């Protein structure tokens, strides 16, 4: 069992958890993830490791309430225990000193996933520019954490309630048109956002890496559920990724696969919420 040390609601739909997982905390590297199973009959969900404290033996994750399991996890508190946490999984992000700027682009809770990558790039001596996109001001997270080390930080909101009105691509396009010396872009967020970023940067021939959030079960490459098409070949996000060259990813196929169980997920969440409501009444 893995004990929750701290739970904090950081916006109306995202919770921050600090969890005891000593071995994972010692070995994790930026870009890697864990898989949770809340109880023995629970589903397995992959979550990127946002931070770790090797001395304290803890990892930090940000979990957005989207389906039954993430809503269920959102009702857990410090002292509660999670049945299984496996990891670190996936390949670490390759990070080295680059000849040019690194743009870290995040959409929503993707901010938590790209944060350790951007920080490591800064530690490697790279100039880091962060573009953080959210639907509105009330769900902005981790802005101050990025500002604590990034050379430049830009925030966009879909509705214009904070920062620049528009999408991350709105801000990115301005920088591309200025001819900035961009060596690499790492984009993390909803698949449709990553697709839009890659469609934009392809015309500038700028290396653009994305972290894929495909459906995942065993996370060891055995089940094949997380398969994605990259460069015309089948790859598994769990063992070959989670990061891939965004210009080679078949995003149209990925978006279709991500929608495969939308109706079942909706029914499961509705049943869970109804049961919780009955208990709380």
What do these coordinates show?
The protein has 281 residues and is α/β, with parallel strands linked by helices. The protein has two domains: 2-89, Translation factors (Elongation Factor Tu (Ef-tu), domain 3, Beta Barrel), CATH 2.40.30; 101-211, Nucleotide-binding domain of ferredoxin-NADP reductase (FNR) module (Rossmann fold, 3-Layer(aba) Sandwich), CATH 3.40.50. 30% of the residues lie in helices and 31% in strands. It has nine helices and 17 strands. It has helices spanning 22-27, 68-73, 110-123, 143-147, 168-177, 191-201, 237-240, 251-258, 262-280, and strands spanning 2-11, 14-20, 33-37, 45-48, 51-53, 58-64, 81-82, 84-89, 101-107, 128-134, 152-157, 164-165, 182-188, 208-211, 227-230, 233-236, 243-245. The strands form four sheets. It has a seven-stranded mixed beta sheet with strand order 12-11-10-9-13-14-17, with helices on both faces. A five-stranded antiparallel beta sheet has the order 5-6-2-1-7. Strands 4-3-8 form a three-stranded antiparallel beta sheet. Helix 4 links the parallel strand 10 and strand 11. The longest helix is centred in the last third of the chain and has 19 residues, at 262-280. The two termini are 30 Å apart. The model has no long low-confidence stretch (mean pLDDT 94).
């Amino acid at each position: 069992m893995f004990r929750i040390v701290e739970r904090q609601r950081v916006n109306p739909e995202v919770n921050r958890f600090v969890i005891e997982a000593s071995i994972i905390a010692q070995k994790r590297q930026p870009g890697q993830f864990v898989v949770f199973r809340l109880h023995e009959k629970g589903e397995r969900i992959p979550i990127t490791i946002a931070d770790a404290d090797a001395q304290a033996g803890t990892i930090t994750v940000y979990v957005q309430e989207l389906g039954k399991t993430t809503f269920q996890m959102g009702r857990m508190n410090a002292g509660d225990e999670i049945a299984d946490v496996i990891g670190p999984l996936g390949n670490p992000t390759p990070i080295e000193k680059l000849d040019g700027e690194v743009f870290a682009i995040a959409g929503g809770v993707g901010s938590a996933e790209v944060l350790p990558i951007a920080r490591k790039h800064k530690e490697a001596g790279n100039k880091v520019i962060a573009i953080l996109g959210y639907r509105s001001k009330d769900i902005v997270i981790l802005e101050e954490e990025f500002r604590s080390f990034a050379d430049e930080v830009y925030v966009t909101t879909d509705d214009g309630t904070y920062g620049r009105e528009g999408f991350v691509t709105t801000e990115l396009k301005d920088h591309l048109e200025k001819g900035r010396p961009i060596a690499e872009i790492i984009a993390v967020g909803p698949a449709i956002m990553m697709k839009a970023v890659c469609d934009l940067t392809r015309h500038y021939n700028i290396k653009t890496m994305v972290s894929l959030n495909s459906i995942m079960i065993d996370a060891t490459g055995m089940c094949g559920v997380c398969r994605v098409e990259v460069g015309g070949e089948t790859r598994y996000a769990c063992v070959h990724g989670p990061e891939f060259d965004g210009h080679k990813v078949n995003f149209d196929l990925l978006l279709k696969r991500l929608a495969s169980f939308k109706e079942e997920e909706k029914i499961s969440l509705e049943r869970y919420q109804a049961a919780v409501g009955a208990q709380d009444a």
